Amino acid sequence: MIRALAEARRVPPAKAAAGRAAKKPVVPPLSRQVRFIAVAASTGGPEATLQLLQPLPKPLPAALLLVQHIAAGFEESLASWLAGKLGTDVAVARDGEPAAPGRIRLAPPGAHLLLTADKTMHVDRDTPPRAGHRPSADELFLSCARTFPTVTAGVVLTGMGSDGALGLAELRRCGGLTMAQDQESSVVFGMPRAALESGAVELSLPPAELGELLARYLERSTS
């Protein structure tokens, strides 16, 4: 299942580039700090997440929290696959674990993954599903908006439905950096489209380009 999700259909680069030829995205000021990265993905998410993460510096100078909609029992395989591809610390999140630089943590099945005010990760199994999702990207983004919005980058990747749009909009309202995958590179444009239509997104690009931009923010944040 991990392999199938990872290898889901992607738009050929030439076609995607042609679709973006007339677009001139406005890049948010590079002076903004990024200490936390929150990512949401569903269908096609493993490959898109890999493309997003590959350009990031190693060791990663930020904590990264990921909500990937996936069948229970496959989260450990996804973490291992990403760790092998990236050569970095990727694991399923544990409750109370510090959200420390260099760590990439996945929401466990049946639980929301939240960022707390003391810079730890809370695995919340008590809060009901939001719009049918637990873990919910909205819950992750809302927790970032409550805690460290001005140093958080939120990213919505390919997926079905609208999970993440509400939380990303709140993160942007509170001063966070907000991004989404573009239509041309998405396997399913539902989640990014909902985020864009809600006014939550500052910048929409293919995952690899979003990763390259995030790398620039991270480099400036540590300089």
Structural features, described:
The protein is 35% helix and 18% strand. The strands form two sheets. The protein has a seven-stranded parallel beta sheet with strand order 3-4-2-1-7-8-9, sandwiched between helices. A two-stranded antiparallel ribbon has the order 5-6. It has helices at residues 2-6, 13-20, 45-53, 75-86, 137-147, 165-173, 190-197, 207-222, and strands at 36-41, 63-68, 89-92, 103-106, 112-115, 121-124, 152-156, 177-181, 203-205. It has a single domain (31-222), classed as Rossmann fold. The model is unreliable at 7-22 (pLDDT under 50). It is built from eight helices and nine strands.
CATH superfamily: Methylesterase CheB, C-terminal domain
The first-level CATH class is given as Alpha Beta
What overall geometry do the principal axes of the alpha carbons give?
Answer: globular
Fill in the CATH topology.
Rossmann fold
Bin the helical content.
25-40%
- Tally of separate helices: 8
Distance between the termini: 40 Å
Record the strand order, biggest sheet.
3-4-2-1-7-8-9
User: Any low-confidence stretches, pLDDT <50, length ≥5?
Assistant: 7-22
Order of helices and strands: HHEHEHEEEEHEHEHEH
Strand content: 15-25%
Main beta-sheet strand count, sense and barrel state: 7 strands, parallel
The CATH architecture designation is: 3-Layer(aba) Sandwich
User: What is the count of distinct domains?
Assistant: 1
Q: Gyration radius, to the nearest Å? A: 16 Å
User: Helix/strand/pairing class, anyone?
Assistant: alpha/beta
Please state the oligomeric state of the protein chains shown: single chain
